[in-house]
Amino acid sequence: MISLVTRSMILLLLLSMVSSGGPVLVYANNKAPSVAVVISVRINPSASYEHKKVLTNAAALQLLKGGKEEKAEHTTALSDIFITVIQHGKTSQYRMSKSGALWNEAELTRLVLTRKAMKQLQAHAKSLRTSHYGSIPPWSEVSKLLPRKSTFSIIDMEKGLEFRAQRRAGSRHADVQPLTKEDTKTMKQIFDNRWSWDRRAIVIVTDNNTRIAASMNGMPHGGDGIPDNGFSGHFCIHFLDSSTHRSVHPDLLHQLMVYTSAGKRESFLNRLSPDKLSETFIGALSQRDLHLLITLAEGANAETLNYFLNEIKQGTTFRMMNRKQSYLDNSKVGLTEELIIPVIVRRKNQSEKSVALQFELTRESVLSPWKIRNVQQR
């Protein structure tokens, strides 16, 4: 269970690496309502890209009527739905739990709505998710939906930046290029103005407005084809069950991002074997993906998460050595597992060195998902 100290550290580290404000509301006649409820779906708390619905006055009051605020030091699993309540000049931020209660981490309280209000809220959430996420067809279908030379829009699921691109080639996945210099500039902004192999969750929007869950890297490489677009080479976009140039097996982190773009990250993580869950943890370290790291360490002790958050803050990088195994193999029969995985670590102003990370994982039953309980450097 993550402690209050750890939560504070997480918040400070997130604020130092990303910037995100609360919902910006614009009202008719510039007159704010006396009460408002903003329902938003996004892939993580700091994501700028969101779909939201605003309830005001009577509709908002009806939703909140009969709700009870109670102290709650800990919360159950949280969803991708974020709620802002503006009432009596006060703004409160909540995150919906899987049970439908609203968790206020800042005040350590839980708002429990009436059963009717919870159903209404969940209906709004379902509608928003449908608009926000992409469908998840396999690569064999997507390759036909996006034939070579087809153009489409790409939306980054975290920053919300959008650019146009064209599929140029690729048989195991799509080899793609930005259409113009302006598109290249936008793409580079998505990757914090530095080209990177990091995987990012995206949604492809076709010209007929079909939304497809996908994942892209941000490294120009290989063949070129569109003149004067300021992009030397192509980048790769992956879809469900697509694979890389070097392997017939899907890339673990690309597939995770595809499921993230489809709103199905939790179901993907819950099916991972102990070794692939451990590899995903290392991938989160490698990409400095704090939200993914926090999700994976939810069942671990606070010291484990604090240690790796501090390593990231100090500029330490992690890189896993190549391992060839199926990524959806959850056939282990036991309830505990220990793994030792070699990684390459480089601390600031130091040379790379090989170390080993020891993972301890458990699950409640043979039908339950694996959870990381502890990670130590050996």
- Which structural category do the helix and sheet elements fall into? alpha+beta
How many independent structural domains?
3
Provide a count of the helices: 10
General shape: globular
Question: Could you explain how this protein is built, in words?
Answer:
The chain has 378 residues and is α+β, with helices and mostly antiparallel strands. It has 3 domains: 4-132, no CATH class; 139-261, Pnp Oxidase, Chain A; 272-377, Nuclear Transport Factor 2, Chain: A (Roll), CATH 3.10.450.50. Helices cover 28% and strands 30% of the residues. It contains 10 helices and 17 strands. The chain has helices at 4-17, 57-64, 115-132, 139-145, 181-190, 252-261, 265-270, 274-286, 290-296, 302-313, and strands spanning 35-41, 51-56, 68-71, 78-87, 90-97, 102-104, 109-112, 151-156, 162-169, 174-178, 196-205, 211-218, 235-238, 317-320, 336-346, 353-362, 371-377. The protein has a 7-stranded antiparallel β-sheet. Strands 8-9-10-13-12-11 form a 6-stranded antiparallel beta barrel. A 4-stranded antiparallel β-sheet has the order 14-15-16-17. A hairpin with a 2-residue loop joins strand 4 (78-87) and strand 5. Helix 8 (274-286) runs antiparallel to helix 9. The longest helix is centred in the N-terminal third of the chain and has 18 residues, at 115-132. It is globular, with a radius of gyration of 22 Å.
